[in-house]
Write a structure and sequence with these properties.
Number of helices: 19
CATH architecture of the largest domain: 3-Layer(aba) Sandwich
Number of strands: 24
CATH class of the largest domain: Alpha Beta
Helix content: 25-40%
Distance between the termini: 127 Å
Radius of gyration: 34 Å
Strand order of the largest sheet: 4-3-2-7-15-16
Largest sheet: 6 strands, mixed
Shape: elongated
Length: 626
């Protein structure tokens, strides 16, 4: 029995052994790949390797958007965060990224594919206790970092523009405003500002729709600023010459059942004066000298009714009806800027074409692409779109546009040493719900260029619903003038008459601009300082000895200040005089001067009629009172 048991036991053990061998053979040979993959899945994890997002710089290399290194301890694949070292500067234009590193608005969205780069990956092996165990067979693919971008934007000018816009909006009580500065020869956008501002660093607390870039997304009727396009068509078609005249009907004219009004009660005036004084009636009548289809072709050629193809998201195209849908009053109404909708960018680019001798440029915002070390990888050259008018027509039109700032609707911003060509615009807003005009609610604008003969820059200012000063010459034009003063004082453009340039002494320093010259850590720590502007004290030796008072200052302002004073032994009344007139009068009296701001005299200390004495100092506050 014992032997049989042993035999039975041996057979059973043999069977077990054979089953074990077969099982091992099945696992290690027949299903080796299956169990190998199962083991690998349990011990290996695929980790995403996030690339560094490309940074954004201005044209001179000032960092506008930077990556922030979160340091060790971040989870694998974490994309870090972005920061704007200059705070709110160009916030709507630059935009933001989501928490997982994808662009959400502005340039961050539009250039996301290039800025973001390409994810890498690697497999990390862990043991049963989840400890990393390196091996020779690890698989990996390194990330490809995004490329950086250098913009056409000038951070210094952007800062100037934003401060001028903020002051202008607050001065006029407007809801919001836009300023765009363009270099006409290249189409480069040098500055693009929206107010209220938007700080990408504090986007979670941003109010309402402040993140929207209205420079490209806002659609509005341009009003009288569009008369420059009408004038360009009339000149190019040979329908009007600058000295040709038209009857402005005394300010009221009925056409196709519509009554057209002018602010000024003008009679027979020249084409140049019609532009300078912004006569709706004159332009309505002159436009009908063209065939509607010809006028329409010029409007389209200047870029209206289509996107500019700027490298920004959410750009609107505006609207112009096809000629087949025009009514009997459409052509004359469009001639002075109604029955057509535009964007601020379209308007400034159209004016830039006039400044660029009739050639329309594509707006350029990206100048070049750079690698992580700042080396140039590729450039984006300026691009011409088309010639819209002849260079001779453009030159004639610029000369005509000088009338607005020398004796017309924007005469208050006449500059003593640099010629300005420009046009004001004031148009009632349209209620988007009813499609009807909103009485008393205006878009007010001014678009100018300087120097007029060979413009170096074109600047648009557009204000939404100014409540204190509704007309473009009162509300928007002074903002342009402040920007121009800064541009000249900073040496960005040269005045026509440098020998009489003295206005820069009246300009307080822009708060916080020294931050732009600092390296990234300092920018993060300080962002932008909003200290109040400092006063400027000017010795009489630095005033206008070599130049006469502005010929376009208010008539009689100097003689009236003398008569109001009653005697040369008392302080004269300088209210509403130009700085140049005030300095000349006080110099005659031997009075030292301290002043702040730009524009005309709003306040003075001592008051008019105060007794003069040796060493007395007069303090002047300048500004624009409409």
């Amino acid at each position: 029995m014992t032997g049989k048991r042993l035999i039975t036991l041996g057979v059973m053990l043999g069977i077990v052994w054979m089953v074990s061998i077969l099982r091992v053979f099945q696992i290690q040979v027949l299903k080796s790949s299956y169990y190998g993959d199962l083991a690998k899945d349990q011990s290996e994890v695929r980790v995403v390797l996030a690339p560094k997002r490309g940074e954004i710089f201005d044209q001179k290399g000032v960092r506008l958007i930077a990556n922030v290194d979160q340091g060790a301890g971040m989870p694998a694949g974490f994309r870090g965060s972005r920061i704007c070292p200059n705070g709110r500067m160009a916030g709507q234009l630059l935009g933001v990224v989501s928490h997982d590193g994808y662009g959400q608005s502005g340039l961050e969205l539009h250039l996301d594919r290039d800025l973001r780069g390409t994810d890498g990956w690697r497999y990390v092996r862990h043991d049963a206790r989840n400890r990393y165990t390196p091996g020779d067979d690890e698989q990996a693919s390194p990330p490809v970092n995004g490329v950086g971008v250098r913009l056409t934007l000038d951070a210094r000018l952007q800062d100037v523009v934003e401060h001028a816009l903020e002051r202008g909006v607050k001065r006029t009580g407007a809801k919001q405003g836009v300023v765009i500065v363009v270099e006409p020869a290249t189409g480069d956008i040098l500055a693009m500002a929206n107010y209220p501002f938007f700080d990408p660093n504090a986007r979670d607390s941003a109010a309402g729709e402040s993140w929207k870039n209205r420079a490209v997304s806002m659609v509005y009727e341009p009003g009288s600023a569009f008369k420059v396009v009408t004038a360009a068509a009339l000149l190019q078609e040979g329908r009007m010459a600058p000295s040709d005249t038209v009857d402005a009907e005394g300010g009221t004219y009925k056409l196709a059942g519509q009554v057209i009004h002018d602010t000024h009660s003008l009679r027979r005036i020249s084409f140049t004066d019609a532009l300078a004084f912004s006569s709706n009636i004159a332009f309505a009548k002159m436009s009908m000298r063209m065939r509607p289809i010809d006028f329409y072709k010029y409007i389209r050629s200047f870029g209206f009714g289509m996107k500019t193809s700027v490298t920004l998201p959410a750009e609107e195209s505006g609207r112009i009806q096809a000629v087949a849908n025009w009514s009997a009053r459409s052509e004359p109404t469009i001639a002075f800027g109604h029955e057509i909708s535009v964007t601020p960018l379209q308007m400034v680019m159209a004016f830039a074409a006039v400044a660029n001798n009739g050639i329309l440029m594509r707006p350029r915002l990206v100048r070049a692409w750079v690698d992580g070390e700042g080396h140039l990888t590729r450039e984006e050259p300026p691009r011409q779109i088309r010639r819209v008018i002849a260079d001779s027509s453009a030159a004639t039109l610029r000369e005509m546009m000088r009338g607005a700032t020398e004796f017309g609707t924007a005469a208050d911003i006449h500059h003593p040493s640099i010629t300005i060509a420009g046009k004001t615009g004031t148009a009632e807003k349209i209620d988007p719900k009813t499609g009807k005009y909103m009485h008393g609610h205006f878009h007010s604008s001014f678009i100018g260029m300087a120097p007029a003969e060979h413009p170096a820059f074109v600047c648009l200012v557009m204000l939404d619903e100014p409540t204190q000063l509704k007309y473009g010459g009162q509300s928007a034009a002074p903002i342009f003038r402040e920007v121009l003063d800064r541009v000249v004082s900073e040496g960005m453009i040269t005045p026509d008459h440098p020998e009489v340039w003295a206005a820069k002494s009246s300009l307080p320093p822009i708060p916080g601009t020294s931050q732009l010259a600092k390296e990234f850590p300092a920018q993060v720590a300080g962002l932008v300082n909003h200290a109040a502007p400092s006063k400027v004290s000017v010795p009489m030796s630095q005033t206008v000895n070599s130049t006469a008072a502005s010929p376009h200052a208010e008539q009689g302002s100097l003689s009236q200040s003398r008569s109001n004073a009653g005697s040369d032994h008392v302080m004269p009344n300088l209210h509403n005089t130009t700085l140049r007139d005030a300095l000349q009068r006080l110099q005659e009296l031997g009075v030292q001067v301290e002043f702040e701001g730009a524009g005309k005299v709003l306040e003075q200390e001592p008051l008019p009629g105060s007794a003069l004495h040796r060493g007395i100092k007069c303090r002047l506050k300048l500004g624009w009172a409409g």
